[in-house]
Give the backbone structure.
Amino acid sequence: MSGFVEVVAKVAERRGVDARGLAVRARLHLPRVARSDGTVGRRLALAEVIRSARHLSADIAAIRGLVPSGETRGLDDLRFVVYDDDKAFAVFSHLHYLRSARPGSVNFALVDRSSGLPVALCSATPLDWRRLGGALERRFGVPPREVWDISRVYSFQVAPHSAISRLLAQVRRWFRRERRDASLLVTTVDPNMGFTGTSYRAANWQEWLRVRPRPYLYLNRQYISPRQLRQQFGTTNKDELRERLGVRLEVSRATLLDSSIYCWRIRGATEPVPLAELHRLRR
């Protein structure tokens, strides 16, 4: 959509929400109404942006006490902590674009030294993606049991530019000190959401693999992940789900871009992989 950034900025200002967060939510939901060639009519796109802004505003209001306000913080104003699970759950369930938290995670944050409110957060979860674990062991010699997934990352509008890179560096130090049984951190970067992996590359992560995209799924016009579908309905089979849910379940038709798997060895340097040698995984 031509002028997407400008439209998002105007809607965000009118609704009083973060334009960056709104853009990510809108990108997640635009494929629901996109044609197979990826194009979206202006009226439909604007409707999705407005709807996303309405939901984002409600989510912010629901956890207002955890949302920092004011001017952008400096890095010296922040301290690294292992963050409270319940508070992390609230932030990720309301403000992360997937609107969910991963159970079994260790949560970390950079918090404001004066207020104690989080400015940037992430979750680390033992890897449970069998296909990725097998590829990491075969190609890089890392046993799956030694891999932790940075499964959620979120920063508030007041976070300084390099907050995520600083947070990830502190997380790596924590694992190096506290978890001798862990040797690798991984994360997935989805360019369809506008993510480029800049914060990871700035922290010396390396792209090791790519992942073929799957269509996005929507329940009652809201994105729902395969993990959430399995938890709620016991299956991710689209035919079974369509039979049970009917028109409540929608599947995107637009062609999506591959996601990137970035990796960071907890101890020692992380070797780069030439672009021509990047292996492509199926979901």
Summary: The chain has nine helices and eleven strands.
